[in-house]
Specification:
By secondary structure, the chain is an alpha/beta fold. It contains two helices and 33 strands.
């Protein structure tokens, strides 16, 4: 005869078995759900990468600032929306992959990769030889005036071991042309009166102390007629700061990926950040500054009113990216870039004018003429204790979309920004 408690025991055991089975079913359900979720994420990330490859391809049929949606594999479940725009000398691309309620997105700054055989030095043939003095070292292929180069025994240190390590060829009478579409965009956007971005400008007093603006969102544009002094602001992303006179950037502020535009820009000693700077009069970078990749310093000579627009890199500053000047008008003053002793550039230096080089450049140099200033005189096409080394530049360095590179250009990613 069964005891009266047996039924209760059976019910308890059955309840326990039911709970265990329910738990196992729930675990299996959540496991399958997680597997599906992980698979969807992986699929979307793969589709984002496919969208980026499409963005970097030469013939993608994309227009600036016009989103385009593609069905990657014609199955109606692998869709990506691709948008490209311009940001300074670079292009900015956003890719969003989606399937139902799931989505994944990435944003990049991209430009043109440098050919492996890019010359370390291109010096316009002005019928003057290149004179090397002291411990000047040039490593890489050089394109020089037809009269070549020689050691200088008259200025500086005549007892150094100045030399060129690499093939030497002949340059042309002009610099390779910059990409006209990008140059025109920079001039129209940043320096023309009533440019296309002016209608969206906000007053400087609306600039917060801290601002992050994603590139997938609209640009934040702040403009002032008076000088602007950035002291402790933290600004990152799709932000344009413009002054009609002067921008001063102090060491206490944090700037990343923004653009600063003014006739004159002064970057004070000790600043660290990554930004693009464009001016029509001068850019000065102080001592111990570090401009991280992909930074850009660019000066345009747009009229005869400015005698000699210049970029000055003071001692012990480091620039990782592009330094360039460009002339819209032709006169004897041209433009000037000064690289002081112990200053360094890792990237490209393109000077539509004179280059006064006393520091080091890990990368490439294009210029019309070198100048050397001493207490006694100014010498043309002289280098003393300078360094140019193409081999020291990373193989992953990506230029912008302004300076001449391979034809057709090979697009590559300069930075993942989002």
């Amino acid at each position: 005869m069964l005891r009266a408690s047996t039924l209760l025991i059976v019910l308890a055991v059955a309840t326990l078995i039911g709970l265990v089975c329910s738990a196992l079913i729930m675990v299996a359900f959540h496991y399958r759900l997680q597997v599906f979720h992980n698979g969807m994420i992986k699929k979307l990330e793969t589709n984002v990468q496919s969208g980026i490859e499409l963005l970097l391809s030469q013939e993608n049929g994309l227009s600036y600032n016009e989103p385009a949606t593609f069905d990657l594999f014609a199955r109606e479940n692998d869709s990506v929306t691709v948008t490209k725009g311009r940001w300074g000398v670079f292009e900015v691309g956003s890719v969003r992959a989606f399937a139902g309620r799931h989505a994944s997105a990435k944003t990049i700054l991209y430009g043109n990769a440098l050919p492996a055989d890019e010359a370390a030095l291109y010096l316009v043939d002005n019928s003057l030889p290149l004179y090397l003095n002291g411990n000047t070292r040039i490593t890489g292929k050089c394109l020089l005036p037809e009269v070549g180069w020689r050691k200088d025994q008259q200025t500086g240190n005549p007892f150094g071991e100045a030399t060129i390590t690499g093939a030497v060829g002949h340059s042309g009478k002009e610099l390779p042309a910059i990409r006209s579409t990008t140059g025109a965009y920079l001039l129209q956007t940043f320096f023309s009166r009533g440019g296309p971005t002016d209608t969206s400008a906000r007053a400087l007093d609306q600039l917060p102390d801290s601002l992050y603006q994603p590139f997938s969102s609209g640009m934040q544009y702040f403009r002032a007629a008076k000088p602007i002094h950035l002291r402790r602001e933290k600004l990152r992303g799709h932000i344009l700061i413009r002054s009609d006179t002067l921008i001063t950037i102090g060491p206490g502020c944090s700037l990343e990926d923004i653009i600063a535009v003014a006739p004159r820009v002064v970057i004070e000693d000790g600043f660290r950040g990554a930004l693009q700077v464009f001016a029509t009069d001068s850019i000065g970078v102080g001592r111990h500054c570090v401009l991280a990749y992909p930074s850009v310093l660019g000066v345009f000579k747009t009229d005869f009113g400015t005698m000699q627009p210049a970029i000055t890199l003071d001692s012990l500053c480091k620039v990782r990216g592009l330094v360039f000047t460009h002339r819209e008008v032709d006169d004897l003053q041209q433009t000037l870039v000064r690289v002081h002793p112990a200053a360094s550039v890792a990237g490209q230096v393109f000077v539509d004018g004179f280059l006064e080089l006393s520091g080091s450049i890990a990368g490439t140099v294009h210029c019309r003429k070198f100048t050397l200033r001493t207490a006694a005189s100014v010498y043309d096409n002289h280098l003393t204790d300078a360094r140019i080394d193409r081999k020291q530049l990373s193989a992953h360095f990506v230029s912008g979309n302004l300076l001449p590179t391979a034809s057709p250009p090979i697009k590559d990613i300069a930075k993942w920004v989002e």
